[in-house]
Amino acid sequence: MGRFTITEIRLYRVSVPLKNHFSTHLQTVTDRESILVEMVDSDGEIGLGECVAFSSPWYTEETVQTCWDALVNWLIPVLVDKEFIHPSALNDEFSHIKGNRMAKACLDQAAWDLFARKKGLPLWKLLGGIRHEIDAGVVLTGGIDDWMVSAVQEARDAGYKRVKLKIDENTNPMELKKLVESSDDLLFFGDANGIFDKLGLEALIKFDRAGLALIEQPFGEDEWEMHTEAVQRMVTPISLDESVRSVRDAKRMETSGAGSVIVLKPGRIGGTTEALKVIQIAKENDLAIWIGGMIEFGISKAHNLALASLPQFSLPGDFSASDHFWHEDPVEPPVVIENGVIHLSERPGIGVILDKGLVEKYLIDSYR
Ligand code: OSB
Ligand code: MG
């Protein structure tokens, strides 16, 4: 049971404006372009996936366009009309296609959704999830000013357990410390997105007393030695996001001592199948792990929430309400926060569907 033959894969390329600009020292995102995936099987069951690459290569080498090309030319053709006994078997078909992990991820995830729907089980239960309430965490971007102080208070009042702030060349560690200390019931993460390549290790060390629960990606993705040095010189745990592109990179965190906390981005590393392997690495090597966001719509969010139900996760991920980023998310029902948590649904699969009216409204290209 659960066996499926893929008959068709449909793509919807959409571009949706964000409520507020999302700015880091790398890029300001105002509109989110993305590819939504419908994987149809011979019984007419539909699994949903979402490609989380961005319009330009500011965060990863892959972009919406490279993913579109890989999907249409290479990945979709090897899946159509094939029968699978399990979603993890898609990877075997992809083995001769190098890289393109973000493009592969949206198909892998669509297959997991399809498989769970066919079994009539919520994906989180199929994966072996043990919690049906997921702690909410939000990312706030911008300098530490009056707006940020009230945004942190609003997040706290809305029930968020954790706030992640971006660190750039203008972030003053003493001001950050003051902000962190003003809300001692909130957990604070600081995400540097590699800014200390420019500012240096001594500048990073000034953030060690800011009261952050962890510092995410201080240096660039290939800077393993710099991260190892930072770990040795600092008390604040170092968490790696961009550096963890694969299972191999997750293993390297342990062998190199470059960090103690993995940021898992399923949509970036190849999907749920790869994510489960990284979770296993974390478990075997005593690395903490949490799930990072990609300014996603509800499909990617639902896949991430299902994984977050697994016992290995000990820190709140980038799980904000749909109305944090979006006036309109083309997926329903929306993610809502109640008393600081998101309740996982009992519906089969990832438990969400496309709002076809909104997909049509924001559509810029499609493929079938
Ligand atoms: O570095 O974690 C990051 C969003 C886009 C690209 C990179 C990052 C982010 C975030 C997560 O910070 C935002 C979210 O989806 O909640
Ligand atoms: Mg990050």
Q: Can you give keywords for this protein?
A:
about 375 residues; alpha/beta; Enolase-like, domain 1; TIM Barrel; 7-stranded parallel beta sheet; 5-stranded antiparallel beta sheet; 16 strands; about 35% helix; globular; binds 2-succinylbenzoate; binds magnesium ion
Describe the 3D structure.
The chain is of the alpha/beta class and 368 residues long. The chain folds into 2 domains: 4-120 and 355-367, Enolase-like, N-terminal domain (Enolase-like, domain 1, 2-Layer Sandwich); 125-350, TIM Barrel. The protein has helices spanning 64-79, 90-94, 101-119, 123-126, 146-157, 173-182, 196-199, 201-205, 224-233, 247-256, 266-269, 272-284, 298-308, 322-325, 356-362, and strands spanning 4-23, 28-41, 46-51, 83-84, 133-135, 137-140, 162-166, 187-191, 214-216, 238-240, 261-264, 288-291, 331-332, 341-343, 353-354, 363-367. A 7-stranded parallel sheet has the order 6-7-8-9-10-11-12. Strands 1, 2, 3, 4 and 16 form a 5-stranded antiparallel sheet that branches. It has a two-stranded antiparallel ribbon with strand order 5-14. Helix 1 packs across helix 3 (101-119). The two termini are 27 Å apart. The model has no long low-confidence stretch (mean pLDDT 97). Bound molecules: 2-succinylbenzoate and magnesium ion.
CATH class division of the largest domain: Alpha Beta
Distance between the termini: 27 Å
Low-confidence stretches: none
CATH architecture classification of the largest domain? Alpha-Beta Barrel
Annotation field: number of helices: 15
Count of distinct strands: 16
Strands of the largest sheet, in order across it? 6-7-8-9-10-11-12
